[in-house]
Amino acid sequence: MSVAIPLLGALLACLMLVSLGMGPVSVEPSRVAAILLGADSSLSELSSSAAITDAEFIIVRTIRPPRVLLAVLIGALLALSGAVMQGLFQNPMADPYVVGVSSGAALGATIALSLSLEIWVWGIHSVSLFAFVGALAVTMLVYGISVRGGKVAVPVLLLTGVALGSLAAALTSFLMLMSEQNLHRILYWLLGGLASRRWEHVEMVWPYAVVGVIVLQVHARDLNLLLQGEESAQHLGVNVERVKLLLLGTTALLTAAAVAVSGIVGFVGLLVPHMMRLLVGPDHRRLFPASALGGAILVVGADILARTLIAPAEIPLGVITSLLGCPFFLFLLHRRRL
Q: What is the structure's pLDDT at 48?
């Protein structure tokens, strides 16, 4: 087994440790580690010869963990979904948003914000709930329109996703123009970010993440066979239409869950799978876990930059991932045939 995956896991753990200490109140990584390992705030003495304060203890144990865990989950889900979409569509430019997930989520969130429906429903913020429902609704519509005789032609699905995604984006723009008083909040959500995220947001995402990761990993071999052609896969025992539906549905659900709590975070699902293929190869049984770890690393690192570059103000997370992803993707594009 490649050593790349354990190394990626170690790098992610280090970044999470750093992220927990970054913010208006800075906490050294050694102190963060001591707090996480259960050090008592009144007894712990570290290299700085200063006891851990109650404020540091609360920040590291209560306030920042939801944001860091969400960064891990969102990065992992977007990158994993990107790896699936690129394999399924056999298109290096495919990403998790290709079937209209992001446009649907943006439309749902914009409806909630334009109507000032910012309440908590069953422990979930209404904006996230509307975004999640909007993402799934558009994706289901794309799939429904693309079915021909009980089968889904991948090119038709792609084009339908582009068309309905554009329609949802147009409706979002219209609502923004009609809701000038909420324009700033809508725009800030669309740019993506993790500010003020709570444990409720983590609880909204992690069940989908656990189930989705297991389902995709179990069907990684089937996706490998699909890359050889649908007829060949059928002869080798793969139920092609069932696997396509399962992979599309799972990635749509994972992407919807991620976007619902973070807004639109670009380039993660497009860039990370390419980087991981260079590292671990094209076999999806290794590519899936590598992409999940790589995506988590990218988003956690981007979130650190978002909080620190112009502190105490914060840059939207989607802006940082695009600024990091675009030049690097262009570099990969010109260095290799993707």
A: 45
